[in-house]
Amino acid sequence: MSKTSRRIGRRRALEGTAAGVVALGLLLWWLLPLGEAAPSGAITISTGTQSGVYQQYAKLLRTALDRDMPDLKVTLQPSDGSQENVTRVATGEADFTIAAADAVETYKLQHRPNAGRLRGVARLYDDYVQLIVKRGSDIGSVADLRGKRVAVGPPGSGVRLIADRVLKAAGIDPVKDITPFADGINTGPDRLRQGKIDAFFWSGGAPTLGLQQLADRFTFRFVPIRAGLVARLHAQGGATRYYRATTMPESAYPSVQNGVAVPTIAVANLLVTRTDVNPRLTEWVTRTVIKSRDRIGTRVHSAQLVDLRTAIYTDPLALHEGARRYYRSVKP
After folding, report:
1. What's the pLDDT at 13?
2. CA-wise closest residue to 137 among 79, 256, 223
3. CA quadruple 229, 231, 232, 238: dihedral sign
4. 200 exposed, middle or buried (CB, 10 Å; 0-12, 13-18, 19+)?
5. Contact 123/268 with Cβ under 8 angstroms?
6. What are the C-alpha distances in Å from 38 to residues 41, 155, 287?
7. In 32, 95, 202, 302, which residue has its Cα 20 to 30 A from 128's Cα atom?
């Protein structure tokens, strides 16, 4: 081999090494912002019920946080849902949580303790309002629930909040015109299967584990919630502006829907924290939420909808300073 050829070979090898170093540097920039040591300490995340999406998502997020911040202890605290979650973060019982936008707004409108300290980290995915009845039920609309035994969710849940509003929009008093039960996704499916209730409301990402398990052993169907009802919901004012008409995809529960999408209502979920939570820690948490989307999404389908382009829209909450730092760092 000539000297010229050897020089060219060495130059190409050096160029290849340099390119590898650059690629590695970009990877480290994505994983470890500015080469900083990962935050340590302890945080608590308020989640949800065992068969719900909040709990599933939070478990997988904890795994991702453990990978990125091995010296950070993450404790998951089950709850009844959005309303309880917002209260816990506002009052300092938890540091982060997932909550529906309507529950956050309701907390603020009621001037509850420390409402002004709440901040957004990311918009995550949408909850679908799901009204479930047995396959042979004569209930074909929300209005048909009059006189029925209906599970409307635990008092601290987002389900209870939205179920009461949907019933009122249909002209039904949620206390007087139905026999209400406080069952959620943990107990509602079995009570429907056993004939102890006629219907139950659920508001969550689709699919939800509790309904997937019910579909394996019981034939049920979804009652459509039509767009006209959404207009009457909006007329109630306040936090109802966060509800929008949509359809639950036909692929959510294939064995139940038989290829048919279900008209219903959606509301966005937010990752929520407080103003006093460390900005650097929050920046790292935000980064993990975004970059773990695909890994978590293989287990929790709803998480596939977490997107950098929409994550910053955390209305009705302003972004936490740490989350803002992260979004600015990746802005094109």
Report:
1. 47
2. 223
3. positive
4. buried
5. yes
6. 10, 38, 12
7. 95
